[in-house]
Amino acid sequence: MATRLVPITLQNVRAVAALETAPHQQGLVAPNALTLAEAALYGEAAVCRAIEHDGVLVGFLAMAFEEGKPPWIWRLMVDHRRQGEGLGRASVALAVELAQAMRPDAVEVRLSHVVREGGPGAFYERLGFTPTGEFDEDGERVMRLPLSPR
Length: 150
Hints:
The chain has four helices and seven strands; from the N terminus they run E-H-H-E-E-E-H-E-H-E-E. The chain is an alpha+beta fold.
């Protein structure tokens, strides 16, 4: 079983946009189509990838690489039909690898998440992320994952 990040192309963009969270997860992550539109406005600072598992698109990752800031997992989602298979964990590992490849000097990766019952905070904590004590402009809790020196 191979999980990997693949570029968003004209051939797969509609499939990426069609990926959805479960109904109880609505409001935890923006729709993929909106993220792709926003990413176009950020230019090279935004990196979007489809998450593919065994040749099938299963999720979406968007990262921000702004100058002077740590790499940021901006959006991450696994389609509701494929949750519970370890794909979220694998996707975070791939996001960390991407961060280290794009920013070899980075000492941490950050993300933010909506704080609410059933939100992803506990998931990220199980993967080693810790709260920074900060909240972003949208009121989301900011978390960090220290990176091992390369």
